[in-house]
Specification:
By secondary structure, this protein is mainly alpha-helical. It has one domain. It contains 6 helices and no strands. α3 runs antiparallel to α4, α3 packs across α6 and α4 crosses α6.
Length: 120
C-alpha cells in the first residue's frame, strides 16, 4: 500500500489550521499575517488518534529541524505560498523544496512505523 504523504499532510493541515497560534505558536514571524481563515473544510481521512500522532511527530520535527517544521506548517497548516515561505525564512526555492521533501519523509516514516489508521 502506497501512502500519499502530501494528501495526508493536506488533510492534517485542515485540522491544524484552526489551531495555529494556540497549539502551534511558533509559526515564523510574518506567516501569521499570511494565514487564511479556516474556510473550505473538507472531510478528513484520518482518525482522531492518527491526527494526534502526526501532531506529535511534527512537534518532534520542530526539535530536530526548526526550518523544516516551519516549512511544513507554512505549506500545509497555514497554506501560504512557497514564495511567502521563502521570503519569511530567507531561503531559496531549492532549499524550500529540499527541506519540504525531507520533512514529508520524516512524517511518512512515522506513519509507516506506527501503522496509523487511515479512515477511508
Amino acid at each position: 500500500m502506497q501512502i500519499d504523504i502530501k494528501g495526508l499532510l493536506r488533510f492534517w493541515g485542515y485540522s491544524a489550521n484552526g489551531r495555529l497560534g494556540t497549539e502551534f505558536p511558533c509559526v515564523a514571524a510574518g506567516m501569521k499575517q499570511a494565514v487564511k481563515s479556516s474556510e473550505g473544510y473538507r472531510v478528513l481521512r484520518l482518525s482522531d488518534e492518527s491526527i494526534f500522532e502526526i501532531d506529535r511527530c511534527i512537534k518532534q520535527l520542530k526539535e530536530q529541524d526548526l526550518q523544516q517544521y516551519e516549512i511544513l506548517l507554512g505549506r500545509y497548516a497555514a497554506r501560504v505560498s512557497d514564495k511567502q515561505i521563502e521570503q519569511v525564512l530567507g531561503i531559496s526555492h531549492a532549499t524550500l523544496l529540499r527541506d519540504l521533501a525531507q520533512a514529508e519523509q520524516f512524517v511518512l516514516g512515522v506513519v509507516v512505523a506506527l501503522k496509523l489508521s487511515l479512515v477511508c
